[in-house]
Amino acid sequence: MFSLNVPVPGRVARLAGDLHPELTRFERIRDRHTLVVKRFDTALDPDADSLSRLRERLRPLLRDAASGPVDLRISGLDCFADPPRGTGPVVYLAVESPGLHALHRRLCEAFGTVEEIEGDDYVPHVTLARGGSVEDARDLVRRREIEPIAWTADELRIWDSRHREDAARLPLR
Predict the structure, then answer these.
(1) 3-state SS assignment for residue 124
(2) Cα 138 from Cα 148, distance rounded (Å)
(3) DSSP classification of residue 90
(4) Nearest to residue 97, comparing CAs of 117, 118, 72, 124?
(5) Phi then psi for 18, rounded to 5 degrees?
(6) In degrees, to the nearest 5, what angle opens at C-alpha 157 toward C-alphas 94 and 32?
(7) For residues 122 and 98, is the Cβ–Cβ distance under 8 A?
(8) Which residues fall within 8 angstroms of residue 79, CB to CB, at 6 or more apart?
(9) Distance (Å, rounded) from C-alpha 8 to C-alpha 10?
C-alpha cells in the first residue's frame, strides 16, 4: 500500500528526539517521522497499487492552481486514546494547516476516503509513540509544553509500505 506524506523538517525530528526519554513508557516509539496526507487503498481505487499510475494521477492534482507550497505548524502534543486502527494510545505532535486540509479533501475526492481516518476524521499529526497506558499518554500531554514549529512543505513523498521506503517525490507547485 502507498501513502502520500509531507516530509518533516529536522527541527521536528530533533523535537521527537528530545521527547524520547518521556516516550519510553510506551510500547513502540517511532524513529521515522512523517505526516500522512492521504492513504491509497485498492478497495477504493484500483490505481492505488501501481506507483506509476498513482504518480501520473497525482501530478495534475498537485499542479492545480489551488495547490502550491503548504504552510504547516506543530502546535502541541496530543494523543488518541483509542485510535481507529492499530494499538492505542497514540502520542503525537498535532499539526495545524488549512492548506493541508484543503489538499487532503481534493485527494479524497480523487481517490476515495479511507473510513474513520480520512475526510472529516482526518487529524494531521506526526506519530511519536503508541501502545501502553492511556493515563500515561494523557499525563504526558497535560504536563509537556511544546514550542510551536512552523515550516513550508514544497514537496510530497509517496511512501511504499511494502518496501518501507520513499518511492517517489512530487513537487507542490
Answers:
(1) coil
(2) 19
(3) E
(4) 72
(5) -65, -30
(6) 55
(7) no
(8) 89, 90, 91, 92, 134, 137, 138, 140, 141
(9) 7
Average pLDDT over residues 70-81: 97
Q: Which three cell numbers stand for residue 4?
A: 502520500
Distance between start and end Cα atoms, the chain: 25
Is the per-residue pLDDT at 146 higher than 80? yes
Q: How far apart are CA 73 and CA 125, in angstroms?
A: 10
Location of C-alpha cell 507550497: 69
- Could you tell me the pTM of the whole model? 0.92
- 40 C-beta neighbours (distance < 10 Å), count: 24
Q: What is the pLDDT of residues 2-40, one digit of tens each?
A: 999 999 999 999 999 999 999 999 999 998 898 999 999
**C-alpha distances in Å from residue 44, one per residue of 4, 88, 109, 161:** 15, 26, 11, 17
Section 119-124 average pLDDT: 96
Distance CA 161, CA 163 (A): 6
CA 142 to chain centroid: 22
**151 to 31, 36, 74, 96, 158: CA distances (angstroms):** 20, 16, 9, 11, 20
